[in-house]
Amino acid sequence: xxxxxxxxxxxxxxxxxxxxxxxxxxxxxxxxxxxxxxxxxxxxxxxxxxxxxxxxxxxxxxxxxxxxxxxxxxxxxxxxxxxxxxxxxxxxxxxxxxxxxxxxxxxxxxxxxxxxxxxxxxxxxxxxxxxxxxxxxxxxxxxxxxxxxxxxxxxxxxxxxxxxxxxxxxxxxxxxxxxxxxxxxxxxxxxxxxxxxxxxxxxxxxxxxxxxxxxxxxxxxxxxxxxxxxxxxxxxxxxxxxxxxxxxxxxxxxxxxxxxxxxxxxxxxxxxxxxxxxxxxxxxxxxxxxxxxxxxxxxxxxxxxxxxxxxxxxxxxxxxxxxxxxxxxxxxxxxxxxxxxxxxxxxxxxxxxxxxxxxxxxxxxxxxxxxxxxxxxxxxxxxxxxxxxxxxxxxxxxxxxxxxxxxxxxxxxxxxxxxxxxxxxxxxxxxxxxxxxxxxxxxxxxxxxxxxxxxxxxxxxxxxxxxxxxxxxxxxxxxxxxxxxxxxxxxxxxxxxxxxxxxxxxxxxxxx
Length: 512
What we know:
This protein is an alpha/beta fold. It has two domains: about 5-245, Rossmann fold; about 260-445 and about 475-505, NAD(P)-binding Rossmann-like Domain (Rossmann fold). Helices cover about 45% and strands about 15% of the residues.
């Protein structure tokens, strides 16, 4: 009898999955916060013919520090093995970005993504032993952008990329990793997010028009898909995002004479190249980064080669992930220039290593710098960008849409940025603000060196890039900067929510 851990088992999709797996001769380890509901579920399993000794109930707050060890140890102690992990727990919080504080982002990312990653890492050694499966319960909000649930969409997009990347890492171990992406499914998720009965009823009624099959889904329909992916019935399927969505997914201004652009990560690489190009195109620049001397060198370059007046350049040396950074950057820019037309979110870091060797602190660092800091600065700048009917351009990566083993957490951050871009584009469109992103392939910068590659390794990496990019070479920062300028300017006046690949064809050759 295979053993399955099911999180979020006290209700909804998790509950339906537990009942279905128990009927199919699984021993089930049930986790959730509601002790009474878990015990009632265990009773249902027994009353349906299951053996009470084949059911384990572990009530725990999944985001707590001790949760992964508690769940895994209890399961292995009782059953001796783990064959499948069903990550079904999750929460929904609704509201536009400008009205949803960073604490809402933190809660969603912690419960929906970080807790899932921690439990998966803890379970993987046992799942490797059994050549088992991981099934993540994502959402149609992962691949599809929706306004007013931006942070939720980002969390599910990150889960989707985690699924695909981990599938690549685990395949050599005989472990399959997949996800289901439900559309609107009749559960308590929307009620617990704050919808009253009248609002929820109207939401379900509207779902009849937004889903190709003319209705919302049922938890048992999603459970059937989860069972398929968890079992040997899907023995040749891995890295798949299986939509159980009733077809929901397939139905789915002029600047001033001298516009003002904030550019993060401006001290080197793509940020530096963008600053120089914007200077040549008559932008006033607010340059931010950690290295004061490097920022001063970039400013001097913008004067000597870009033709910009030194008075049209502001330098703000700051750690972008610090609490005061967004206010410092935005306030100093407004004080000097009086407006913000474009925000170029170019700052970012790379950390490499497989999931089993990359602790949660690596995940935390990457999510904090690459995603959370970007969200915080964007929120701070948006009121001014709305006033200017301006633009936001996020520097993402080909690692956003494409999974790569060994850089899973980095891929997750870029996937989250991509979904933030698309969702925010929908939210900001009524304000005349356009939001886009560039997704570079391998670009000659220092990002791989600062991630730990020595010169010989980096040189070999660039050489290999000649074979993995359709155009036969890595890219330059200037080429990415040109794409950023296009998206920031009125030249792309009818483009929003786009992820523009500047990757030399890397994405269409993936995986290779």
